[in-house]
Amino acid sequence: MSVVRVLPLGLDLEVADGQPVMQAAHEAGYVWPTECEMSAECGLCVSIVREGVENCGPMPDEEQETLQRTMGMVDPSRRLACRLTVTGPVTLTKRGVRPEGEE
Ligand code: FES
Question: Would you write out the chain's pLDDT as a tens digit for each of its 103 residues?
């Protein structure tokens, strides 16, 4: 279990080993921007890793392909939350993350 701090909301999210950050957010009752529902296709879940890039899991091929297609680059500090796993503390920025039921 690791803690991922999500800015600007200031959410501290507990993420199990091997669990994508976005899935942990859903289970904790938070909405994360998406159009593909965690299929690694839309690119809308992309998040900026501010601290702890060394604690981020390897980038699967499908994540690299989507980042290349949607952002035109692959960079360790830009990750799809629907594929990002962590092994230690990470701080990232993702606008639009909010509690379910809030606009
Ligand atoms: S939720 Fe669509 S790419 Fe991650």
Answer: 999 999 999 999 999 999 999 999 999 999 999 999 999 999 999 999 999 999 999 999 999 999 999 999 999 999 999 999 999 999 999 999 999 987 7
Residue 37 to residue 65: CA distance in whole angstroms: 17
Structure tokens at 53: 């890039």
What is this structure's pTM? 0.95
CB burial of residue 3 (10 Å; 0-12, 13-18, 19+): middle
- Those residues whose C-beta lies under 8 Å from the C-beta of residue 61, and which sit 6 or more positions away, are none
CATH no., domain 2-98: 3.10.20.30
Cβ neighbourhood burial of 102 (10 Å; 0-12, 13-18, 19+)? exposed
Report the nearest-CA residue for atom 2 of ligand 1: 42
Q: For ligand 1, say whether the CB of 40 is within 6 Å of any of its atoms.
A: yes
